[in-house]
Amino acid sequence: MLKRLLPAALLLMVPLAANAWSFDEFKENISEMELSAPWKKEDNSAAQRAKYLNNVKKEDLKEEYGRKKFELHPNPYMTVEEYEMLSAPKDKKLEEIPIPKPEKASDMKYVPEYDYEIVRYNNPPGSPEISLDTDFKQRKQQNIQGIVSPDYTILVYPSVYYYHKENVVTCDLFVIPLEQKGNALTRIKKANVMHRDQEPILSTEKSTSEYGIFRTLTPIDFNIDGTKLLVKEKIGSNSDGIWQTNAIVYDFSTNTSYKLNEIRDAITYYWQEYKNLNLSDFRWDIYPLGFEVNNPDRIAVAAFAYTGGTPVFLGNWSVDTKGERTLLLSLNPKNKVQISMNGVKMIRSGVVPPVILEQEEKHKKYLDKLDAKEKKKEEKEKLEALEKEYKQKLKELDKDLKFELKKDDIRGKVQGSTSLNDSVEKVEEVLENAEQKQLEKEQKAKERQEAREQKRLEQEQRKNNSSGSASTGAVAPEKE
User: Fold this and answer.
1) What domain range is 357 assigned to?
2) Positive or negative CA dihedral for 196, 200, 204, 209?
3) What is the pLDDT of residue 165?
4) DSSP-assigned states of every residue in 69-106
């Protein structure tokens, strides 16, 4: 112990003795010191070094084994590095969200649970609207029920925001990718804002310079293949109602959007040119209905004017998804336009009966018990595999040490029986032969082990075949 402390003590004394020693004198004194070693000086042989290195490797192996066991069963006694690794932020989009269940107190045996079904979203055509809760202005934000694509791959929903000081309402439209496992209803139930894409596909203007302005985005419907989404943007004031409705189409194949302003221009031009009616003198608006059945690439729109009494019908119109060509469909409100209904939504259809809930709870407890049993079995298998791997590596270290000691013994015998000139070549030759014999021995042992395993598998196969024949009751046919 004193030998190990002596060099460190002398090194610490160097700055204090700088005036007494020169650098050359210090270097000369250091070179004469007896530095400590992990083996005794009189036994400073290759065998001793090999044994020491073998023990070091075993300690490292033991530490690695303990760390792997710790990863299977974490506990509060951990290093700072391990704690920081476990507490590192995780991607919320990768977390699996269970189907929400109503909370039940411990003293309650039954809590009603709603039953749900899937229905068409745009039914009747053009009817989807944003419905805000009474406490929306207190919470400042609300997520609205969205629309699910026809192939059940995404859900699009509006998120509405309220700015109290300016009395302004704005909106974003987000996409949530749905899970691809489970039935359609399960996919919708598991939709969660944690899994949504970070950037909205559409956003209203976020300016709060005008007091009392609201701008909202309401999905109307998908087209038949789910590549396009029709959205209506409502702009108005909290004091005097809606000013204007715009039709917008978002194309998922190109990630671009088109505001169909041309439809409003076409309606204004028609009534001015053919009816001598300037719509700018009246309050009028459009109502996007959806994609046409017979023309899936065109969107149907109804227009109305407000004169203080019954709204005046301004016709049913259609426009292509890029707003390049507008057509008048009919000026007669009785001539209905055939609108496709492609998107779906989830609604409450009733309450699950108590008997079914009780059976589901029993089945869930049974599944939880099976899962716990399976998890315990998997943990046991992992621990056994870790222990087996640890013992195998220890055997390999001992085997390597044994071979190193054998090599050292060979060197001593060869060097003691030959001259200095040919001892090196002789040692290399003998070591190479010894190593080759060791490899051949290991290969033969491996082949014997494989042969035993193959024989065992063949015996099991014969046993299974014989038991299978006995269970089927096969009888040889009688000779005629």
Assistant:
1) 353-385
2) positive
3) 92
4) HHHHS--S---HHHHHHHTS---GGGSPPPPP-----T
User: First vs last Cα of the chain: how many Å apart?
Assistant: 98
Q: Say what the pTM is.
A: 0.66
Residue 344 DSSP SS3: strand
**Residue 317 Cα to chain centre, angstroms:** 44
Name which of 288, 309, 308 is nearest 298 in CA terms: 288
Non-local (6+) Cβ contacts of 153 within 8 A are 177, 178, 180, 226
Contacts of 330 (CB under 8 A, 6+ apart): 315, 316, 337
Task: Mark whether 260 and 237 lie in a shared domain.
Answer: yes
Q: Quickly state the pLDDT bin for 44 (edges 50, 70, 90).
A: low
Tokens 């909290």 map to which residue? 238
Peptide bond into 124 cis (omega under 30): yes
Helices 420-472, 354-417: axis angle to 10 degrees equals 150
248 CB-side CA count, 13 A: 20
Residue 11: the pLDDT is 47
Q: What is the pLDDT of residues 141-155, one digit of tens each?
A: 999 999 999 999 999
pLDDT value at position 144? Answer: 95
Which phi-psi region, left, alpha or beta, contains residue 372 (left: φ > 0; alpha: ψ -120 to 50)?
A: alpha
Closest among 402, 395, 408, 407 to 58, alpha carbons compared: 395
Give per-residue pLDDT as tens, 300-318. Answer: 999 999 877 788 999 999 9
SS3 118: strand
Query: For residues 339 and 291, is the Cβ–Cβ distance under 8 A?
Result: yes
Same structural domain, 147 and 254: yes
Structural domains of the chain, count: 3
Residue 230 included in any domain: yes
With 60 as the cut, is the pLDDT of residue 27 above it? no
What amino acid occupies position 300? A
328: its two tokens: 């008048």
Residues 292, 155 share a domain: yes
Based on the fold, state whether residues 367 and 345 are members of the same structural domain. Answer: no
Last residue of a domain, one of 385, 406, 440: 385
Nearest to 270 by CA among 187, 350, 346, 328: 328
Cβ neighbour number for residue 5 with a 10 Å cutoff: 10
DSSP letter at 476?
A: P
| pLDDT for the residue 63 | 87
CA torsion angle for 349, 350, 351, 352 (degrees, to 10)?
Answer: -50
Distance CA 49, CA 52 (A): 5
Dihedral sign for Cα atoms in the order 323, 327, 331, 336: negative
What pairs with residue 373 in β-bridges?
Answer: none
